[in-house]
Write a structure and sequence with these properties.
The protein is about 20% helix and about 35% strand. By secondary structure, the protein is an alpha+beta fold. The chain is elongated, with a radius of gyration of 34 Å.
Length: about 575
């Protein structure tokens, strides 16, 4: 609405400039001759649009069509400024009678639009309730009218009439469908994506607009019911697919693309010996498909990452779109997806496990996965009993730790080369322990020990034959590395629950976090793109007053670059 007012004021200002600039009478400026406003392609006439067109033989077919659809009758009733978009007879196409009213209204707007007020990317609301777009290059901005395009159709002439403007185009305006209509009209080969979108619709009873028509035999009011369709998925982001004020992008995958992406993801997870809820992967596909900006092909080429309305990352250098055949929409643009990958950082939310799994290892496994120097196993003990900030919703988590004493407390220093392991329940009620196979990629590493151990530890990663040092950490009175507190993030979905005020527990901020942050690590896997175990080296060179070492957990969270 603001733009519309600006355009109207611009026309008034332009008229005032013309009036002040000349010493001749006002009527002299409306003779039917060429006059320069921004350039010599603008014609000013002392006639209404209807009167001018009634005599314009080269525009007669378009004029007759608009007249037959009642456009000029409506303009007379409205009695306000307007702009018409027409084509010459040689460019006029016969109109489908079923679409004639829609097409006629797509060529009329209630704003008098001066060429000097147009700008690249502008959208103009037409009578049919949809927008048309303006494209302008540098020459158009400098006043060359033939470099202005309306819905990709070049402008050849502009006529300023007494009650508005007439733009002559090279082709008739074809107004594309809205994003909602495009999705709703998708063919069977897109049915999976279409169903994902449409299944988010919710049918709600509209009581205020439903009329009571009686009472049933139980005393309940009977309504002539009206129902409305809402879509909480889009409403939460104020993203209305039907709105013509929307300027958006949608990525549209075929069934084949979706099925291949899901199959590839499941194959990877099997190779990694991991699992992921299928619904989470489907949710990512839906949440990554919609953007609140209209991305051009150039935008996609210039940006490695774009982020959807749900903050989902789409890496343009990995994913593959059909950018040669964009889908024009009245409120945005669409691109077909040629190939899609569900990113590693979606397949892995985080990898977190505990040092106390030592007690579930065989002696052989202990010697292989917990390689210590100057360390003597003392116990695995639960320092803090299992608890949940909201029982029945969030699982109980206990702070159980692995405790070592020093074999020789006189000789300062110890080393633990720890291979992260996981445990899997077996049929006998016990656990099977095996090393984690970590896919190659970038991760943030978090760890937890216990506060007030009063010593420093150096953290390194042994990845194949490479040893990389990452941090020196003081395990003093601060709680940064105390169990799994610290500055790391939370279990999946927990932060959203916190932000929504759904957690009121006094210790809600201490629940199942990543722990103190060591740094960003790059793991190489087996060197051939396959997952492989790795080793965390915890090293100390001086005990100080410490009498023991307590290990709590490790955590890897894939970064945005682990795509």
């Amino acid at each position: 609405m603001k733009k519309n007012k600006f355009l109207s004021l611009g026309v008034m200002a332009l008229t005032a400039v013309l009036f002040v600039a000349c010493n001749e009478s006002w009527s002299d400026h409306y003779d039917r001759v060429d006059m320069e406003i921004e350039n010599d392609q603008v014609l000013i006439v002392n006639e209404t649009s209807a009167d001018y067109l009634d005599q314009a033989d080269d525009l007669s077919q378009m004029y007759a069509f608009l007249k037959s659809e009642g456009v000029f009758d409506t303009l007379a009733i409205k009695d306000q400024l307007h702009t018409l978009f027409l084509v010459k007879n040689e460019h006029f196409s016969e109109v489908d009678p079923d679409k004639s009213s829609f097409i006629a209204k797509s060529h009329v707007t209630d704003i008098a639009i001066s060429p000097s007020n147009l700008y690249d990317g502008e959208r103009i609301l037409m009578w049919h309730g949809k927008y048309i777009s303006v494209s302008m290059d540098s020459l158009a901005a400098a006043g060359h009218i033939d470099h202005i395009q309306i819905n990709e159709s070049p402008v050849t002439e502009v006529i300023k009439t007494k009650d508005g403007y007439i733009y002559v185009l090279e082709s008739m305006i074809e107004t594309p469908l809205s994003m909602y209509d495009i999705i709703n009209d998708l063919g069977e080969e897109y049915s999976l994506f279409k169903d994902m979108v449409m299944s988010e619709n919710v049918l709600e009873f509209d009581r205020p607009n439903s009329k009571p028509i009686g009472v049933d035999n139980t005393g309940n009011t009977v309504y002539d019911s009206v129902f409305i369709i809402t879509n909480p998925f889009f409403d939460a982001k104020r993203f209305d697919l039907t709105s013509e004020s929307l300027t958006a992008t949608v990525l549209i995958p075929t069934n084949e693309v979706l099925e291949q992406a899901m199959a590839d993801a499941k194959t990877k997870l099997a190779e990694w010996e991991m699992s992921r809820d299928t619904n989470i992967m489907k949710k990512w596909i839906l949440e990554v498909a919609f953007f609140n900006k209209k991305y051009s092909v150039a935008d996609l080429e210039e940006n490695e990452d774009i982020f959807s309305i749900y903050g989902r990352q789409w890496r343009t250098t990995v994913q593959q779109l059909d950018t040669e055949n964009p889908i024009r929409m009245s409120n945005g643009i669409g691109y077909r997806v040629n190939w899609m990958k569900i990113p590693n950082n979606v397949l892995m939310y985080r990898l977190k496990d505990y040092f106390y799994y030592y007690e579930n290892c065989s002696e052989t496994q202990k010697a292989e996965y917990f390689v210590g120097n100057n360390l003597l196993f003392k116990e695995c003990v639960t320092d803090v009993p299992a608890w949940s900030p909201l029982a029945g919703v969030w699982p109980d988590v206990e702070n159980r730790v692995l405790v070592y004493e020093f074999i020789d407390p006189v000789i300062d220093g110890f080393t633990l080369d720890f291979t992260p392991v996981k445990r899997v329940a077996n049929e006998d009620g016990g656990f099977e322990v095996k090393p984690w196979k970590i896919p190659p990629g970038e991760y943030s590493l978090g760890m937890g020990f216990k506060q007030s151990l009063n010593l420093e530890v150096d953290i390194s990663i042994i990845d194949g034959s490479e040893v990389t040092s990452y941090a020196t950490t003081t395990l003093g009175s601060a709680t940064t590395f105390h169990y799994d507190r610290g500055s790391g993030s939370y279990a999946e979905g927990y932060k959203e629950a916190l932000d929504a005020g759904l957690i009121s527990h006094s210790k809600k901020g201490n629940y199942d976090r990543d722990g103190g942050q060591i740094g960003t690590v790059e793991l190489k896997g087996d060197g051939n793109g396959n997952p492989a175990p790795f080793v965390i080296r915890i090293n100390n060179v001086t005990f100080g007053s410490a009498t023991k070492m307590v290990f709590h957990h490790w955590c890897l969270r894939p970064t945005s670059n682990n795509y």
